Amino acid sequence: MPAFVLDDATPPDPRRRWDSLDAAARGACYDNNAGVPDSAAQVAARNAASATYRAAHPDGLDIPYAAGARTGFDLYPATETGAPCLVFVHGGYWQRNARADFACFAEGLNAAGWSVAMPGYTLAPEASLTGIVAEIGAALDWLAVHGPARGIGGPTILAGWSAGAHLAALHLGHPAVSAVLAISGVYDLAPIRETYLNEKLGLTEVEIETLSPLRLAVTPKPMTIAYGSRELPALVHDARNLHALRSAAHAPGALLPVPGADHFSILDGFRRPDGILVRAAQDLLGGAR
């Protein structure tokens, strides 16, 4: 595993004593639902707000980019086709959730004059992680070709949350992507293989080595790496470690701790045009030009 960055201001990384942890303790390192006491209420509120936002913007929903049942886009275009676009990849440890559950997080950027595009993807175990990564690449390819006809033709910032942050980080090098905003992500897959999460993922050694951003060469485009100050320690350290790796390679991009935010509430930074994540996307656009 990569060396972990120590910082006295953060909680200790439990993976530094990984060999001493039993299966339950290892799983707890990544169990965001259990780690946030009101996670169920937050998810219910998010889903309700997303259903409302989706219903109010029906014209660009469920547009396929590939043949799978989940391989479609929900598009929320700005008034101007040339406006910037944020592509948002949802999380759920690659095995749950759907793009429709996150529609409300288009609200702040739409109000700020941006387009938002939300791709879905096939979930594990129906798809391997290798297959999921390929689907996100196919979604970006589709948007680059067909987006202008759907009102989306400006520069693209790719964002993702949780597992979506991992998927976004892997596509920083895509030619259609100007920069990445990675939020509350997991960037080394090796510990995941030794938790309950791997029952559906079935990670291979090749996937761990080739699909872990912390194990890959640095792409020198801008990437902002955000996390909540109340995240689980493993996620805090992954964020800081990825930023340290990129900084050592002189790659541009900020480390953005969001004070008081947990794994779920951090996305509220997309709900208003002056939200912290909206501003982070706007800052990345300025840095990418």
TrEMBL record:
What does the record list as coiled-coil region(s)? none
Q: Which Pfam families match?
A: BD-FAE
GO MF assignments: arylformamidase activity
The BD-FAE-like domain covers which part of the protein?
78-171
Which Enzyme Commission number(s) are listed?
Answer: 3.5.1.9
Q: What InterPro entries does UniProt report for this protein, alphabetically?
A: AB_hydrolase_fold, BD-FAE-like_dom, GDXG_lipolytic_enzyme
> Domain of life here?
Bacteria
Q: Which keywords, in A-to-Z order, does the entry hold?
A: Hydrolase
Name of protein: Esterase
Question: Lineage of the source organism?
Answer: Bacteria, Pseudomonadati, Pseudomonadota, Alphaproteobacteria, Hyphomicrobiales
